[in-house]
Each structure stands twice: as structure tokens, then as C-alpha cells.
Amino acid sequence: MGPLPFMKSIADAQALCERERDPFYLDAFMIEAWLGRTVLAAAEEYAGKKKAKYRRMQSGETSRYFMEIFGHAKDHELRHIWGSLLRFAEYEDTQSAMLRRAIVPLSFEHECFNDYVGPNSPNLLSRPLEAVVMLRRTIVRWCEWLDSLVHFQTHASWHVTPIKFDPDPDKRELAALGVNQRFFADMDEFSRKWWEWHHGEAAERFRNSPKWQTLGKAMAAQEDRAWNYQETDTITISLWPLLKRNNWTYCDLMNVTRDIVSRPDFYPCRTEQEFASYCANVLGLRKITPGKTARNGRPLGYEVAMRLCKHTPASPS
Questions:
Q1: Which of 62, 150, 182, 201 is the most exposed place for a label (fewest CB within 10 A)?
Q2: Of 305, 43, 51, 56, the residue nearest 155 (C-alpha)
Q3: Looking at 8-12, 96-100, 262-266, 308-312, which range is the least confident one?
Q4: Alpha-carbon gap, residue 8 to 13, rounded angstroms
Q5: CB 245 within 8 A of CB 205
Q6: Residue ranges of the domains in the chain?
Q7: What is the pLDDT of residues 115-129, one digit of tens each?
Q8: Bond prior to 268 in cis (omega within 30° of 0)
Q9: Is 251 helix (H, G, I), strand (E, B) or coil?
Q10: How many Å apart are CA 38 and CA 60, to the nearest integer?
């Protein structure tokens, strides 16, 4: 479908709606604001809490920000917002790609459990209240998968481009501009327009500030942090929504992770206590409710986990 039209303000969005006679663009602007706030909040959690054990990740941030923007919607308006979300996901830009990536695990869960809106959903036209309940449940779950995606992207960036995580939000903003400038030639049309506008606006805003030097430093910065457990981090962060939905224990998630990683007998997957400590103190992931570990190592949702990781399940022992 191509990139979304560039909208730097709500006035731009309203003008586009009038010109195209299409109310979608105002929704799109609000969706951009919602996703942008989610990404910034995750970066702030990493930047503001240098000790990982104090971070709180995947605790419903995306859903809370969604409700702040769209929570006023009446039941009959929710279908319109749902349609706008799906349409937004069809465009070719970074934020649209986020929605597409997060809907993949949601579609797997729909196929396995049929709890969410999808091709196998029952016909609820004659039961509008049930339809709204399912739609709200689907949006909340989509937000949980977005939580996971944003967490992983932030965690990866924290290792690869640590200069973007200064405690000062102004320096974080400028560092992100500097890092993005390195890849300007590879950006899509929307991202280029956004960068050019943001760079010009920031240049004016920080014209007499020593903070402006951060942009140049970020353009040249090459240092990164050692990422010794990248494979385990990727899987654990990515599958955390399954732990939340199905009330897995830490041992359940560890067992599933061990079925996927290349070195299952190495730290941090040797014992449940070690794995739980790693989740909380390194990844900022904390389980709230107690659960019961699956005896066969295959908790509810195991098939979804294997599909997500593109891994063929081993034969049960």
C-alpha cells in the first residue's frame, strides 16, 4: 500500500481527512501517537533505571496508553477503531510493521484457541454485546504482544546502540536522530520525511544548547554492550505473553525455552531458580500469580511458542 502520508500535527491529519474525505487519517495520527509513546516509555525505563533489576517490562503499558487515547470509544465506535488498526497495519512504514508483527502471534493463538477475532470466529452479528467483548479482548491481547515486541526492540537497542539511553530525555532524542541518520539511505519515504522534519525542528530547538553535540556523537558512535545471552533473551521476551495468558510458571517458560535454544544446559536455563532470577533481575520480567508446572514440559500454548520460534516440536518423552 505504500507509506502513510506524513502528518506532523493533528491539524495536518484533519486537513488530510477533509481533502481525502476519509476520517481514517485522524485515527492514523492517534495510532502513531499511541505507538510512539509506548516506544518512548520503554526506552525511558531502560535509560532511567541502569540496574536492570529495577525495571518493570511487559506490565500492560501498551494497553494503558491505548486506553488513554481510545478508551472513550463507545461500543459501536470500537469496530471503526478496529478497522483503522487493521488498515494502518497494511501500510509500509516502521510503526505499521510493528502492528503486523504483533498480530502474527495473535493469529496463531486464534487458530489454537479461537478466543480472539479472526477467520474462525463465530458469527456474532445477532449477539452484538458478545461481539464487542471479543473485540475488546482481542485488542487487549494485541497490545500484550506489542508489549513484547517493544520490549525486545528496546532490549536489543540497549545492547547495540547504548548511546540512545542517556538518562536525559533530550539527549536520548538527539541520539536517536543521530543513529537514524547513519541509515538514512535505507529509510522508507515516510521515515525520511519524519527524520528531515524532526531534525529541522530539533536544530531550532537546541540551537544554543550544548546538548546538540549529542547528535554528532551518536552519528559516529560505534560502541556496543556485550550480549552474551541473546538467544535466550529473544525467546524469553518474545514468549512472555504466553506465560501471562496461560499462567505458566517460570519452570514452564524455562522448559519451553530449553526446547528451542541451542545450548539448553547452559546459564540461565539450568534451574528454575536461576531462570526466575534472570527474568526478574536482567530482563525486568516478573510473574505475579502462582501457577502449576506442566508435568510433560508442554504447558498450554506450547504449540504457539513453537510456531512463533519457527521450531518443530520434539516428540514427547
A1: 201
A2: 43
A3: 308-312
A4: 8
A5: no
A6: 10-161, 169-220, 230-308
A7: 777 766 666 555 678
A8: yes
A9: helix
A10: 10
Could you give the CA distance from residue 101 to residue 232 in angstroms, rounded to a whole number?
A: 20
Grid cell 487519517 is found at 25
Burial class (CB in 10 A: 0-12, 13-18, 19+), 292: exposed
- Specify whether the CB–CB gap between 88 and 31 falls below 8 A: yes
- The model scores a pTM over 0.85: yes
Q: Specify the DSSP class assigned to residue 157.
A: H
Q: Are 33 and 8 in contact (CB under 8 A)?
A: no
C-alpha cell at 226: 556485550
DSSP codes, 33-79: HHHHHHHHHHHHHHHH--SGGG---SSSHHHHHHHHHHTT--HHHHH
**CA-to-CA dists, residue 130 to 48, 125, 145, angstroms:** 42, 9, 23
